[in-house]
Amino acid sequence: MEKIETARLVLRRPIASDLESLVSINADPEVMRHIGNGRTRTREQTEAGLERAMTEWREREFGMFSVELADTGKYIGWVALAVPTFLPEILPAVEIGWRLDRRQWGHGYATEAAEAVLRYGFEDCALERIVSIRDVANEASRRVMEKLGLRFDFETTVPAHGQRVAVHALIREKFDARRTAKTRSH
């Protein structure tokens, strides 16, 4: 997979030059308040995360997709398929997650990019089930999950820091049925 194009976005593998934009996103307290322990990330933490993301693509058939605006090439965030090792009780599993620059919120970019990544996960990676995990207070992510067809499964606690999270899930059969219904309605 080199890239995925949607109506407004280009999704591609992460590269080293994504670092400055990622540092800015990860340093924003509003962006990070529902992520992990709610703390912002340092430049060093962000750089280590980017290096890990580039390595994961080499080790698996999936990983973090950098998201750019198609018309300008501006980096706006990422959508990823990852193994949620931070929540051992749901393993084995593959999670879809996203993080966008706050200035890009409210434009439907997370939903548009995540829809393309779900399709990649089900069709190209032959996954049977994809989960998404959110802080129980993160209503914006809940709405995106619902738009994507991910359904609430259960609530639990992240062992490392005690955050309450909601686990949502989508199986391939339901994804295929949604796509078929969308095709028929257009």
Structural features, described:
With 186 residues, this protein is an alpha+beta fold. It is built from six helices and eight strands. The chain has helices at 19-26, 29-32, 43-59, 109-124, 139-148, 172-185, and strands at 3-5, 9-12, 64-69, 75-82, 95-100, 129-135, 151-157, 164-171. The strands form two sheets. It has a five-stranded antiparallel sheet, with helices on both faces. It has a three-stranded antiparallel sheet with strand order 6-8-7. The longest helix is centred in the first third of the chain and has 17 residues, at 43-59.
List keywords for this structure.
single chain; Aminopeptidase; alpha+beta; 186 residues
Task: From the 3D structure, determine the CATH topology.
Answer: Aminopeptidase
**Could you say how many structural domains there are in total?**
1
The CATH C-level name is Alpha Beta
The amount of helix comes to 25-40%
Strand count? 8
Tell me what the CATH architecture is: 3-Layer(aba) Sandwich
Q: Distance between the terminal alpha carbons, to the nearest Å?
A: 27 Å
Whole-angstrom Rg:
16 Å
Please state the overall shape, judged from the principal axes of the Cα atoms.
Answer: globular
Uncertain regions spanning at least 5 consecutive residues:
none
Mean pLDDT across all amino acids: 95
Oligomer: single chain
Portion of residues in beta strands equals 25-35%
Order of H and E elements:
EEHHHEEEHEHEEH
Structural class: alpha+beta
Helical segment count: 6
The CATH superfamily turns out to be: Gcn5-related N-acetyltransferase (GNAT)
Widest sheet: strand order? 1-2-3-4-5
Major sheet attributes: 5 strands, antiparallel
